[in-house]
């Protein structure tokens, strides 16, 4: 586990504050932690899907990707369908064909399709745990975290793609770091689950970072390093500054900040 975490800790510019862990392990926050985690898994799948639809695959492949995620979105946003039926939608049934003249490699498609499959599996696993713990699914607002990074994404190509990939790397790395930080404090079933997630989230982080370097490297290597540094600072700020809302990726709980000062 330490081996997996070492590159992640090196990449992130701050650790999860212990005040966040204290908040996360309160029994009254368990439903928020799990529901937000659930939605994060879907969002991870959606952003990977949007990337390959936008940059890499042809229209028919894009439609197949939309159809793949639709039952998960129906459940999450419209509370439609039985969660157990999602197990029948775990796989993508159509082969992905690249867009004509797409400058982006099949590596982007392969890595992102595998990532989507894994995130959807994690989504289902969170639902299983919620079912065991008798926690019903309900809509909750999303945290400021991803939004707070994505608003700095540049609006011209290939900078947009590079920035989105770097944000993806930070979100995956932080998730991984938080699962590891929570594992010692939660019950055995949840701890086992969090540790089982570390391996794939660590790989997702590396995949995003490699892709960013690959696509951006053609432009300018030092510019990529600059952007990694920039988003690292934005990310650390979102994690360590006071946040009034508790979520999986929220900042330092306001109550804790207030009581310490
Ligand atoms: Fe995941
Ligand atoms: Fe992931």
Lateral arrangement of strands in the main beta sheet? 1-2
Number of helices: 10
CATH architecture: Up-down Bundle
Q: State the shape.
A: globular
Portion in beta strands: under 5%
How many beta-strand elements? 2
Largest sheet: 2 strands, parallel
N-to-C terminal Cα separation, in Å?
Answer: 35 Å
Q: What's the CATH class label?
A: Mainly Alpha
| Number of separate domains | 1
Order of helices and strands: HHHHHHHHHEEH
CA gyration radius, whole angstroms: 18 Å
Mean pLDDT: 92
The helix fraction, in percent, is 55-70%
GO molecular function: tRNA 2-(methylsulfanyl)-N(6)-isopentenyladenosine(37) hydroxylase activity
InterPro entries: Ferritin-like (IPR012347), Ferritin-like_SF (IPR009078), tRNA-Hydrxlase_MiaE (IPR010386)
Pfam families: MiaE
Protein name: tRNA isopentenyl-2-thiomethyl-A-37 hydroxylase MiaE (Synthesis of 2-methylthio-cis-ribozeatin)
Give an overview in words.
This protein is mainly α and 261 residues long. The protein has one domain: Up-down Bundle (Ferritin). The chain has ten helices and two strands. Strands 1-2 form a two-stranded parallel ribbon. Helix 8 packs antiparallel against helix 9. The longest helix has 30 residues, at 188-217. The radius of gyration is 18 Å and the shape is globular. The mean pLDDT is 92. It binds fe (ii) ion (2 copies). One fe (ii) ion (FE2) is lined by residues 41, 44, 119, 122, 201.
């Amino acid at each position: 586990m330490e081996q997996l975490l070492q590159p992640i800790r090196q990449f992130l510019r701050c650790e999860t504050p212990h005040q966040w862990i204290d908040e996360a392990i309160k029994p009254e926050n368990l439903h928020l932690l799990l529901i937000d985690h659930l939605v994060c898994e879907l969002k991870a799948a959606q952003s990977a899907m949007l990337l390959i639809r936008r940059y890499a695959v042809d229209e028919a492949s894009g439609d197949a990707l939309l159809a793949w995620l639709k039952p998960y979105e129906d459940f999450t946003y419209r509370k439609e369908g039985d969660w157990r039926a999602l197990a029948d939608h775990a796989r993508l049934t159509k082969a992905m064909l690249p867009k004509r003249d797409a400058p982006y490699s099949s590596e982007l498609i392969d890595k992102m399709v595998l990532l989507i499959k894994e995130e959807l599996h994690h989504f289902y696993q969170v639902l299983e745990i919620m079912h065991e713990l008798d926690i019903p699914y309900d809509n909750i607002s999303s945290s400021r975290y991803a939004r707070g990074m994505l608003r700095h994404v540049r609006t011209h190509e290939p900078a947009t793609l590079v920035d989105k990939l770097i944000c993806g790397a930070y979100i995956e790395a932080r998730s991984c770091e938080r699962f590891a930080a929570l594992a010692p404090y939660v019950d055995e079933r949840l701890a086992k689950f969090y540790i089982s997630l570390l391996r794939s989230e660590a790989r997702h982080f590396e995949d995003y970072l490699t892709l960013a370097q690959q696509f951006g490297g053609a432009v300018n290597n030092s510019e990529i390093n600059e952007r990694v540094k920039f988003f690292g600072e934005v990310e650390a700020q979102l994690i360590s500054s006071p946040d009034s809302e508790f979520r999986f990726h929220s900042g330092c709980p306001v109550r804790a900040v207030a009581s310490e000062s």
